[in-house]
Amino acid sequence: MKTQLFxxxxxxxxxxxxxxxxxxxxxxxSVGDIVYQAVDSLPSNSITIGNSGPNQTWDFSSLQDMEVDxxxxxxxxxxxxxNIHPDAxxxxxxxxxxxxxxxxSTGLEMVGYGDIPLNMLMIPLPLVYGLSQxxxxxxxxxxxxxxxxxPDSLAPFISGNxxxxxxxxxxxxxxxxxEFNVDAWGNVxxxxxTFDALRLKVEETTTTDFYAYCSGVIGGGWYSVxxxxxxxxxxxxxxxxxxxxxxxxxxxLAELEMDxxxxxxxxxxxxxxxPATSAHILxxxxxxxxxxxxxxxxxxxxxxxxxxxxxxxxxxxxxxxxRFSKTxxxxxxxxxxxxxxxxVISGKNVVSKKIVKQ
Length: 358
What we know:
By secondary structure, this protein is mainly beta. The chain folds into two domains: 19-273, no CATH class; 276-357, Immunoglobulin-like. The protein has three helices and 21 strands. The protein has helices spanning 2-19, 155-159, 275-278; strands at 34-40, 53-59, 67-74, 90-94, 97-104, 107-113, 116-124, 132-146, 164-190, 193-216, 219-224, 233-243, 254-258, 265-271, 287-290, 297-302, 307-313, 318-324, 327-331, 338-346, 349-357. The longest helix has 18 residues, at 2-19.
């Protein structure tokens, strides 16, 4: 009897040890990777966060590609804001914006967005079931601007000092505290396939405060703006992410953004295939790009009411990405002569055109 119990216990431990996974820094995006991330802004009621705990199953196969973003990971060297973010070892280009990241063995941190320095932990690493970690509070905004909203007559009220008779400047600070909890593991199915995954719950608390610089005959100083004028604001955002160590993926499989009460799914982002290779073209879709060849401006015309065009060079670098209805234009004047590609995307439908710029 003891032998049987020992055998059963050993089998149980072995199965659970094999089922659980660990996600390390080598399992997520690196320089040179390109990720295609789709958005379903109207997910069906079947898309839910499910339960916490081990050996869970999540079925997100009904998700629809309503929009697809191309996330290209490049080196920060040579980018416009390289010197502002010296700690970055990766740069993500999405929608012509640059996000600067620092990936190390203990986490993936966003150190900048464009020319704005930041200090935000995106995910702690390694991810393992049961992980619980806090990051912050981290200041993500500390902006000063000229006062155009508060009359000078309120300077004594704000400062408590009747020698101050001016409100010269205002300041807004935003501080984020993040809670990370890996509260479940199992397998998740998205349109791309089924993967072993860990579920990471992220709760972000953002506190925004307002300050006024009051001055007068004895100098000046910063004071908190009373709640009667600008009350301090606190927002809590909850999201659930699914991460895998499957070598075929390099980013989170899916992310469910919850409403303010964390009861309903507002929208979902999820990994998808390259639209140029996975999409099909319906026969009733027509796309015309002219003139071709062109010296400068092209016109993109389609029968689709709501779609998106992506212009890329022969190396696949995205030059522009824009949503439009029926007709739009793109100017090649700042680009050298050569071959370019224009893709018109609507859901899973893609039409690609080759353009020659003379």
